[in-house]
């Protein structure tokens, strides 16, 4: 089933025009997929008989190895946008729509509700509304009142939000996001002028919190206030001063989540207070934890990954990463940080890599616990083990209760579920030219009626 196109590509194109590194990478990506659109590979195994690897649908489904559930994402196949919930066979179970379209990020809530971006895209490339819908597609909550842009009220939402009750936006045992009454953290941006940091006007990341009543809770964090805590060396500071980083978008933060209960804090490490916020700067190759009470950056990985740093020695160079978060308590790998390391082009000075990886690491020792990558694949194979695993922007990862990891490889519009041994046990593609920001696997118990009768995840989760 085809769904309307979201506002995502409009904001993406605006960001790409302001970022020459991304422009080059995006142009190469388009050329590669133009070739793919006219060349069909031989010998690619698909799950649905008679389908091409480029057609939308499920390519692999190993029912005995998967964490069965439903998958929700914002679909971008026409305009204006929608959110879709599919089953393990790729069939649409539910679709949500809105008059102005549903934006590029959709997150699941219990009882069949969802939260999404919506409304319009402002001149800054941000989104005017954060919306909540129930199973019947009824709008049950909406927020657009953080600021005023050109006479229009706007949430100025940028890349992420998170509802109280759950730390990460996906299923965690005993930590359901609140459907009613909960507060919502929103990642945003605002324009700032600070000649001590840059001669350019900067797009500065902001994190704010809004209550269920649509009013500010009083929490607001501005990145520019903590610039000197980010670990930039003289070269990085020079590039931000003279070039505004990537022409003003000097951090381009793309994820926020709370840490939630974790063993590090239980052992006395105050940096990992459950209320603290972990975030990710794509432009700076920087992962940070923000102290919720003081606003200070109390933990970071990067931006320096040189060979004389623990980050460089143990993790290697992280480039343009997305969706960095702490795996919640009760799931395999709990307390470790999971991140989609995009590769591509980012950093001060810029570094490059032509493939992506997903890494899980111990945040205290920085030891790498698990990694998924396929640098030896081909652009000319869009599915399966022969596919080059690479998304130079967007993307994310989710730890599942059976120990598998669901990965959104965003640029080619591909979702895979992989085992700890890196075996692909489920694979879904949107088809050529259909980028996908982030998808989430939804537990069967959150879907009214559980129409496919999948086993509830509560029985799979670590006790």
Short description:
By secondary structure, this protein is mainly beta.
What topology does this entry show?
Layout: H1 8-17, H2 20-36, E1 57-61, E2 70-75, E3 82-86, E4 92-97, E5 102-108, E6 114-121, E7 127-133, E8 139-143, E9 147-149, E10 152-154, E11 157-163, E12 184-192, E13 202-210, E14 216-222, H3 234-247, E15 253-258, H4 263-266, E16 277-281, E17 286-290, E18 297-301, H5 310-314, E19 322-326, E20 337-341, E21 344-346, E22 351-353, E23 357-361, E24 368-373, E25 396-399, E26 405-409, E27 414-418, E28 424-429, E29 440-442
Antiparallel strand pairs: 1-28, 2-3, 2-29, 3-4, 5-6, 6-7, 7-8, 9-10, 11-12, 12-13, 13-14, 15-16, 16-17, 17-18, 19-20, 20-23, 21-22, 23-24, 25-26, 26-27, 27-28
Structure description:
This protein is about 10% helix and about 35% strand. It is mostly beta strands and about 475 residues long. The protein has a single domain, classed as Neuraminidase. It has a 5-stranded antiparallel beta sheet, with no helix packed on it. Strand 27 (about 415-420) and strand 28 (about 425-430) form a beta hairpin.
Could you tell me the mean pLDDT? 89
Question: By helix and strand content, what is the structural category?
Answer: mainly beta
Strand arrangement in the largest pleated sheet: 1-28-27-26-25
Helix content: 10-25%
Described by the principal axes of the CA atoms, the overall outline is globular
Which regions have little confidence, pLDDT < 50, spanning 5+ residues? 1-26, 28-50
What share of the residues does DSSP label as strand, in percent? 25-35%
Radius of gyration: 21 Å
Number of domains: 1
The total count of strands amounts to 29
Q: State the distance separating the first and last CA atoms.
A: 38 Å
CATH topology: Neuraminidase
CATH class: Mainly Beta
CATH architecture: 6 Propeller
Give the biggest beta sheet: 5 strands, antiparallel
Number of helices: 5
* Relevant CATH superfamily: TolB, C-terminal domain
